[in-house]
Amino acid sequence: TNPVYTGLPTTIFEVMSRLAIEHGSINLGQGFPDVDGPEDVRRMAAEALIAGPNQYPPMMGVPALRQAVAAANKRFYDLDVDWKTEVLVTSGATEALADIITSLIEPGDEIVLIEPLYDCYLPLVRRAGGIAKLVRVTPPHWKLDADELAAAFSDKTKAVLLNNPMNPAAKVFTREELGLIAELCVRFDAYAICDEVYEHIIFDDREHIPLMTLPGMRERTVRIGSAGKTFSLTGWKVGYVTATPRLLDPIAKAHQFTTFTTPAALQTAVAYGLAKEDAYYAGLAGDLAKKRDRLASGLARLGFGVVPCDGTYFVTADIAPLGLAASDVEVCQRMTVEAGVTAVPVSAFYDGNAPSTFVRFCFSKQDSILDSALERLATWI
Ligand code: PMP
Ligand code: GLN
């Protein structure tokens, strides 16, 4: 029989969520909030659904949302963006990544990525025929080595893919690190694909710095955002891409043949949401910082080696101090089955030879859920 391609792996989020459901476990694995985002934003979507039209909206996205994305780029980062030619709406950041990688990467192109990697990066790059040049950062410091980074770039480099704030590391890149990356992009004439879905989930007075704002980067950077993260509405799958027309054009071509468009009512509501007052954005990060502290201090009390978290809604913890004599994968399985708490093994975010004693917990959950998870773990350990 004709063989079927089996090269695509099962994502760790699917693996762990399935196991969590099977065992009635508290799911701190897959990253999603357990409380829906702002009611006014949801109401706006409901009204837009009733009022219609409910037909294909424009391929590039509803004008109101493209305008709102351009306005947010100005408001938060002082970036001047032409909403007509430099903004594309996609069905989630995931579609954006697929459109970008399939349109910009050709077989044999090298692409620099930093491990740990968000789940879809490597499968998409490799399916496009790209050659991944991996630069590794490891817990607990996630320090980026300048020489290793430089060594990953060459004349064959087409692009670097950067996730900042970084999932699962919860690392926020410093201006110095970003400067290094920008310099290499300019020197090797490489593009930068910036997954910035956690741009507003950043803690302790840190500032999100889009790589696009660094010298020489405006014309060579593709910046991705997601309403799923910014409005705690992950099921909506509304993403947006900002890039110079020369880069955005081929990406929009890929979008034509992938989804063509994204539900109009959701786009209209996200346009409204992006214009929300500063207090909304401060509240999002402030609430999550408290949850981070709640979970992190609880895990530390139980003996986990908690790794600092500067952004995202994930905290990584070292299980080595618990003395369980098992790998992160085994511990995540046992924790789900025996303790009723699910986390994700950090080794799943590396392309082999990974650190094997770190697990990732999502803390975008109600306080009572975080407390229950900690109580269950206390009984189990
Ligand atoms: N990139 C990163 C780093 C993510 O964590 C996620 C979602 N968890 C995505 C992309 C995908 O975002 P979306 O749900 O908008 O497709
Ligand atoms: N981004 C989420 C996470 O890191 C999961 C999204 C998904 O399941 N694809 O957990």
Automatic annotation (TrEMBL):
The Aminotransferase class I/classII large domain, residue ranges: 26-377
UniProt entry keywords in alphabetical sequence: Aminotransferase, Pyridoxal phosphate, Transferase
Cofactor(s) this protein cannot do without: pyridoxal 5'-phosphate
SUPFAM superfamilies to which the protein is assigned, alphabetical: PLP-dependent transferases
Record-given protein name: Aminotransferase
Name of a matching Pfam family: Aminotran_1_2
Presence of keyword Transferase: yes
Organism: Kaistia terrae
Gene3D superfamilies: Aspartate Aminotransferase, domain 1, Type I PLP-dependent aspartate aminotransferase-like (Major domain)
GO MF assignments: transaminase activity
